[in-house]
């Protein structure tokens, strides 16, 4: 199914009057606060979030998987689904591929399919946490960190192949999430594992094209349950510094031990100019990969508060914005539309924080007023502003309502069948 401008205009018609009333009321209040509403809208229109190819189907857990039907079973169908999201919210202009789950067979056809729906290719992800059917050596006990040099070389070669695939599609970054670790004390030498990882990453780093970045994703546990070789931001940062200017740390919101202050990690990485990207999702306990903003929306706001300050006060380059979620229960497309909206809302809230006032009360240690200033922004309903930014970009005033109204899932099921399955987790 392809979403046309007619689809958008017809579905926007009944919402235009109420939207205009809500937006004009909000815009008036924001201008009274000295905010430039047009500038806010432009920033929101420019803010694009990459969609993970592996989240367009129904994810599962080890206890079960309940497919919703009509899943994209080919890379072209995945690209078309991201095209549908982008047509609805004009905020998802690229797909992030995972190799080998999404190895292109016909590059020209893939590039053409993407161009037809106005999307590009964001960071490509390597995968040395699963053995492929024809694989000679196993990653069971690790890949880049493995004590066996031939297994490390296999994993290095895989990452180099992923870079070549990304180059043919116009990607500009390689994301390395290393599952390597141990599940029992005594299983491996922490220092040798880290040294092997550094040396392996150095070889991959040397294969990076000049204008590419390497994004090092950290995670405290799973699939191993005693150690992970890159468990936290500090180890990722340490390696990124050792590797060079093109290496950065990637922050997956679900990859933190309970109650970790992620907004402080973001501030520290930006101070060092090493914040390379995000995998947005939400979680209550572990790496739950839930809808962004569904559990801790205030934390998401505080993270964007640090990002907006960091853009003004540091030289950290603009990070790669990506979602990384797994949809076990909701319709994956609805879930992704909700996640993109939550991210844009948090960004909008951070953009209206009265920075001057906040800085002044911080100097005066007026803690109460500091909270008032932040929560005034967080508690301002900016949904009409986000909707207006999407409307001005030719999208749907309510992307989810339009998605449901157009019965997209029903037509995907008719077209692809109830049992079509997407490759991925
Ligand atoms: C690991 C992770 C990583 C991906 C995978 C799909 O938990 O966050 O980013 O490779 O999920
Ligand atoms: Mn991730």
Question: What features would you highlight for this structure?
Answer:
about 425 residues, alpha/beta, TIM Barrel, six-stranded parallel β-sheet, three-stranded parallel β-sheet, 11 strands, globular, binds 6-deoxy-beta-L-fructofuranose, binds manganese (II) ion, Xyl_isomerase-like_sf, L-rhamnose_isomerase, isomerase activity
Description:
It comes from Mongoliibacter ruber. InterPro entries: L-rhamnose_isomerase (IPR050337), Xyl_isomerase-like_sf (IPR036237). This is L-rhamnose isomerase/sugar isomerase. One of its GO terms (molecular function) is isomerase activity. Keywords: Isomerase, Manganese, Metal-binding. The structure is a single chain. The strands form three sheets. The protein has a six-stranded parallel sheet with strand order 4-5-7-9-10-11. It has 425 residues and is of the alpha/beta class. The radius of gyration is 22 Å and the shape is globular. Strand 4, helix 6 and strand 5 (173-177) form a beta-alpha-beta unit. 48% of the residues lie in helices and 9% in strands. Helix 6 packs parallel to helix 7. It has helices at 5-12, 16-32, 37-46, 75-89, 107-116, 149-169, 190-206, 233-243, 262-271, 297-313, 332-351, 355-363, 367-378, 383-392, 399-405, 408-416, and strands spanning 51-52, 94-96, 120-121, 124-125, 173-177, 181-182, 213-217, 227-228, 247-252, 275-280, 320-323. The chain has one domain (48-352): Alpha-Beta Barrel (TIM Barrel). The structure holds 6-deoxy-beta-L-fructofuranose and manganese (II) ion. 6-deoxy-beta-L-fructofuranose is lined by residues 54, 125, 177, 217, 219, 252, 279, 287, 324, 425. 6-deoxy-beta-L-fructofuranose (LRH) binds next to loops.
């Amino acid at each position: 199914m392809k979403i046309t401008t007619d689809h958008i205009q017809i579905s926007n018609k009944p919402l235009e009057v109420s939207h205009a009333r809500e937006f004009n009321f909000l815009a008036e209040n924001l201008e009274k606060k000295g905010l430039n509403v047009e500038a806010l809208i432009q920033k929101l229109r420019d803010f694009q979030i990459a969609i993970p190819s592996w989240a367009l189907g129904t994810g599962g857990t080890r206890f079960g998987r309940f497919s919703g039907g009509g899943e994209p079973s080919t890379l072209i169908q995945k690209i078309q689904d991201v095209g549908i999201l982008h047509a609805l919210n004009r905020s998802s202009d690229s797909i992030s591929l995972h190799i080998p789950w999404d190895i292109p067979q016909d590059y020209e056809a893939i590039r053409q399919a993407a161009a037809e729906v106005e999307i590009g290719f964001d960071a490509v992800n390597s995968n040395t946490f699963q053995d492929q059917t024809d694989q000679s050596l196993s990653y069971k006990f690790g890949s880049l960190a493995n004590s066996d040099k031939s297994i490390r070389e296999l994993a290095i070669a895989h990452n180099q192949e992923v870079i070549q695939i990304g180059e043919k599609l116009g990607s500009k970054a390689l994301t390395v999430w290393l599952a390597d670790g141990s599940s029992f004390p005594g299983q491996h030498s922490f220092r040798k594992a880290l040294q092997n990882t550094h040396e392996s990453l150095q070889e991959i780093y040397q294969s990076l094209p000049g204008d590419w970045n390497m994004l090092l994703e950290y995670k405290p546990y799973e699939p191993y349950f005693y150690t992970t070789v890159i468990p936290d931001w500090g180890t990722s940062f340490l390696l990124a510094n050792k590797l060079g200017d093109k290496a950065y740390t990637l922050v997956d919101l679900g990859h933190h031990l309970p109650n970790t202050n992620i907004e402080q990690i973001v501030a520290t990485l930006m101070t060092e100019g090493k914040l390379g990207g995000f995998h947005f999702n939400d979680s209550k306990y572990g790496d739950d990969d839930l809808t962004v903003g569904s559990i801790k929306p205030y934390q998401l706001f505080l993270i964007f508060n640090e990002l907006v300050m960091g853009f003004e006060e540091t030289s950290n380059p603009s990070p790669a914005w990506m979602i990384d979620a797994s949809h076990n229960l909701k319709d994956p497309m609805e879930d992704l539309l909700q996640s993109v909206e939550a991210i844009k809302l948090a960004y909008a809230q951070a953009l209206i924080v009265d920075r001057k006032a906040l800085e002044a009360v911080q100097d005066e240690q007026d803690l109460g007023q500091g909270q008032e200033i932040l929560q005034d922004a967080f508690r301002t309903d900016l949904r009409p502003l986000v909707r207006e930014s999407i409307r001005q970009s030719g999208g749907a005033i309510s992307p989810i309502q339009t998605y449901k109204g157009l019965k997209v899932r029903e037509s995907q099921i008719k077209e692809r069948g109830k049992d079509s399955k997407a490759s991925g987790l």
